Amino acid sequence: MATKSNPFSFLQQVRSEVAKVTWPTRRETMISTAMVVVMVAVTATFFFVADQALGYGVGLLITAGR
Fold first, then answer.
1. Could you give a single Gene Ontology term from the biological process aspect (predicted)?
2. C-beta of residue 34 within 8 angstroms of C-beta of residue 41
3. Whole-angstrom Cα distance, residue 61 to residue 58?
4. Domain around 42
5. For 35-60, how does the pLDDT look when each residue is reduced to its tens digit (9 = 90+)?
């Protein structure tokens, strides 16, 4: 079971841990954001094309059965 510590000690530990974090630079953040936006656009385009192709194929199958 965890032992209770006072809030002041907890905040000191949090501050100590946050100081160890390596924060990304502004440039790294912008590059990562751009990569995410590009990948979302590529993925959205792929699924749009796949959906249209499958819809067209199902439409052909339905009309061929008449």
1. intracellular protein transmembrane transport
2. no
3. 5
4. 9-64
5. 999 999 999 999 999 999 999 999 99
Q: Is residue 2 part of a domain?
A: no
Q: Which tokens hold the place of 37?
A: 């936006």
Find where tokens 């912008």 sit. 30
Measure the CA–CA gap between 48 and 36, rounded to whole angstroms: 18
Residue 15 falls within a domain, yes or no? yes
**Alpha-carbon distances of 16 from 7, 21, 22, rounded to whole Å:** 14, 9, 13
This prediction's pTM: 0.66
- CB of 24 closer than 8 Å to CB of 32: yes
Instruction: Place 2 in a pLDDT band, splitting at 50, 70 and 90.
Output: low
